[in-house]
Amino acid sequence: MDKIERGLTLIGLTNLEAKVYLxxxxxxxxxxxxxxxxTNVTRTQLYPxxxxxxxxxxxxxxxxxxxxxxxxxxxxxxxxxxxxxNEQLTILxxxxxMIKKIKE
Length: 104
Hints:
Arc Repressor Mutant, subunit A
């Protein structure tokens, strides 16, 4: 796993979600059939996986006559990463306080 995939797993993506997300970055936007072909992930696996990525806020689903998945603009992704980082720092501070209380 490369450094970027590892980073994506640290922010809550599974290995497979990270793989699909990185491929979608290269494709910019694509139908499920194209993503399946490019990632060697079956369409039946992709549908729920893509929905999870939409829920996590890293891609968007565009529905017209056909459904297309698209990566978010860089600014939106950076904003999501900053939010995640701040949440993690809050959790660490709370954990530190809990540990100090236990030691007293």
